[in-house]
Amino acid sequence: MKILLLFSAGVVQPARAPPVENFGGCSLKNLVQRLVGVFVVLFMCLTLAPQAAAHSSSTPSPNGSTSASPWHYSESWTITGSWYGEGLHVDYYNGSHYSDYYALDFALKGSPCYKRLYPIWDGMTVATVDHTIGRLTMTKYINGVQWRLKYMHMDSINVSVGQTVGTTTIVGYTGNKGQSSGCHLHISTQHWSGSNWVSHPPAFCGRTYPHDHTTAWKGC
Fold first, then answer.
1. DSSP secondary structure string for all residues of the chain
2. What's the CA gap between 155 and 185, in Å, rounded?
3. Which of 101, 119, 182, 199 is the most exposed place for a label (fewest CB within 10 A)?
4. What is the tens place of the pLDDT at every residue in 151-198?
């Protein structure tokens, strides 16, 4: 057997193997191991993560004799910007489509700002108030199911969390707060499924509302 020897300063030393190629202080072997680990984590995230589901139903929200319009009965409002079924209100989750939620945008033509607003159901409880973006949510149990009414872009909100309100309570006034391009009321309705809020087309005054920008809908 031949042994390769190096002579340095009179001392016999075994020859060293050539160094493993390094990348930024990391050996090629370690680098490959780290890359494999990254790909494994990415694969697990993509395959094991729960897929986002659309939380919406085409069934209109409850209607009936106790349902009233969000605006005063003497006024007639039109649909102004977006409405259910046209895909303008879309949510995304981690870059993936989450849901198209049902909503209506209404305004009094010619004079949309600072108009009084009312709940569409009696016996509602104020759940949340956000003065910064003009958001008000109210809840009510109907036939054992919890329903939520949400108003957006309000200029002012006159009620507080926990307060009981009804169809004759002025809860605030229309405005242009939040992501809005003009004074209007954004209204949406949802029911609680036990794990999430499910969006429904808003219905009040005994009717739902078609995709129509010209009809002026009288309050009730």
1. ----EEEETTEEEEPPPPPPPEETTEEHHHHHHHHHHHHHHHHHHHHHSPPP---B-SSPPP-STT---SS-TT-EEEEEEEETTSS-SEEEETTEEEEE---EEEE-TT--TT-EE--SSSSEEEEEEETTTTEEEEEEEETTEEEEEEEES-SEE---TT-EE-TT---EE-B--SS-SSSBEEEEEEEE-SSSEEEE---BTTB---S-SSPPEEP-
2. 10
3. 182
4. 999 999 999 999 999 999 999 999 999 888 899 999 999 999 999 999
Q: What is the dihedral of CA 125, 127, 131, 133, to 10 degrees?
A: -120
Give the residues across from 139 on adjacent strands. Answer: 125, 148
pTM to 2 decimal places: 0.70
Distance from CA of residue 2 to its chain's centroid?
A: 75
Neighbours of 134 (CB within 10 A): 24
